[in-house]
Write a structure and sequence with these properties.
Elements: E1 5-10, H1 17-22, E2 30-35, E3 52-56, H2 65-76, E4 81-85, H3 95-106, E5 109-117, H4 120-124, H5 126-139, E6 147-151, H6 157-164, H7 170-177, E7 181-191, H8 195-212, H9 214-233, H10 235-252, H11 263-279, E8 283-285, E9 288-294, E10 297-300
Parallel strand pairs: 1-2, 1-4, 2-3, 5-7
Antiparallel strand pairs: 4-6, 5-6, 8-9, 9-10
Helix pairs in contact: 8-9, 8-11, 9-10, 9-11
Length: about 300
Amino acid sequence: MAPPTSVLLPTTTRSPVIEEVAGQLAPTDELLVICDTETDPVADYADEIEKTRVVVAGEPTGCSGKANAIAAGMEAATHDRIVWTDDDFHHPPDWLSGLHTAYERHGPVSELPFFVGRDPLSILLEPVYALGGTLGVYTSDKAWAGAVMFERDDLDVEAFLEELRQTVSDDGLLSEYLDVTPLKRTRRVEIGGTVRATLERHVRFTQIVSHHEPADTAVMGVVTTLLAAFCLLSPVYAAGLVTLLVGGVYAAFGCRRWTALLAYPAILVQVPLMAYALGRRTFVWGGRRYRWHSKFHVEVVS
C-alpha cells in the first residue's frame, strides 16, 4: 500500500482536473489546490471536495507565480511523499496509482509532456517540442512538473525552497536537486491558442534552458543552425531525413500526430525563433510579465 501522499495542483480556475485527481486519492491522501489570492475562482470551490484543501500562495515577489505556488504548497503539505501536477491535461483513473507503482520500482519518477498546438505557430512547432520537450526530457533525466513524484528525503527541501522563491522554473530547478527517472509515458498537453501566447511560451522555454543549462543552449544553437543549413542546401534529402527522425520520435513515445510532417519547416523557423527568444528582455506567463536577469534574479514587471 502506498504511503500517505500530498498532491500539489497549482490553479486559479475551477478545473475539472481537481475532481479527476481527488477521485484517485486514498483515505489518507490530500490534494492541495494552490491559487494566488482569495478572490481566485477556485478559492472557495476546492474546499467543497473531499480530501481537498485550498492554499492561497499570495502574489509572487522575486519569482514566478508557479514557483511561488509550488513553494507554498510544499510548505503546507503534511505528507512526505509529494506529487506535483498541472491542470492542463487529462488525468486518467490510474494516473496516481501508476506513479506510486513506478516510484516503488525506480525512486523519484516523472512522466513526459507531449505538447499539442492550438494555433498555427504552436502546431508548426510541435516537432520541435517533441524533440526538446519530450525526447530531450526523457534522455536527459529531467523532471516535468506536470507529473512528478518524490519524497522529501530525496532532496534537500530547505535549500530547494529557498532557491525556488528566487527563480522562474519549478521543474528546471527541481531537476538540479532530484535524481529522477523519466517514464516513457506521455501526457497530451494542449498549448497556445494564439500566436502571441505561443511566442511567450517559446521565450520562456528557451530561457529556462539558457539559465539552467547554458552549455545545452550553445550546443542546441549550433546543432539547430547546422541542421537548418542542411535543410536549405539539400532540401529534398533533408526533408526526408528530418521527417523520418521526428516521425520516429513520435512513434517511440506513442504519439500519432500528422504534425510530424511539419518537421522540415519547423527546423527552419526554429533558428530565428531561438534568436528572438534569447534576445527578449521580458516574457508573459500566467498573466504576469517577468524580466529574468539571471537564474536567481527575477523581476515581476507587472
